[in-house]
Amino acid sequence: GLRGGNKMVVGKGTASFGKRHNKSHTMCRRCGKRSYHIQKSTCSACAYPSAHMRKYNWGTKAQRRRTTGTGRCRYIKTLPRKFKNGFREGTTATAQKKK
Questions:
Q1: Which residues does 56 contact at the CB level (< 8 Å), separation at least 6?
Q2: How far apart are CA 15 and CA 9, in angstroms?
Q3: Could you read off the pLDDT of 83-93 as tens digits, one per residue?
């Protein structure tokens, strides 16, 4: 640390890092990041347990990382095909003529 007279002053640097062993944040159930504040019971990354996901326009890159298309899109990827067929359901395909 720095010396003020004969008194040691402990700063935020190397001497202080050994004392840091308490976790204020743990894993979030929704976003999977280590951002869930234990005492507040809220996630600083996705705002869980709030119904709406945390999103700000000043964080453009953060929006890009978690927007539609970054996952599997299990429902969305079948939509163009279903749209082409008029969202028909409960029918069977007609038999093709053999040549």
A1: 62
A2: 10
A3: 999 999 999 98
Q: What is the CA radius of gyration of the chain?
A: 27
What whole-number distance in Å separates Cα of residue 12 and Cα of residue 56? Answer: 31
Report the predicted TM-score, pTM, of the whole model to 2 decimal places. Answer: 0.70
Cβ distance 48 to 30 under 8 Å? yes
Sequence-distant (≥ 6) Cβ neighbours of residue 1 within 8 angstroms:
8, 9, 10, 11, 13, 15
Across residues 57-65, what is the average pLDDT? Answer: 97
As a residue count, the chain comes to 99
Write the Ramachandran bin of 49: left for phi over 0, alpha for psi from -120 to 50, otherwise beta: alpha
36 contacts 48 by C-beta, under 8 angstroms: yes
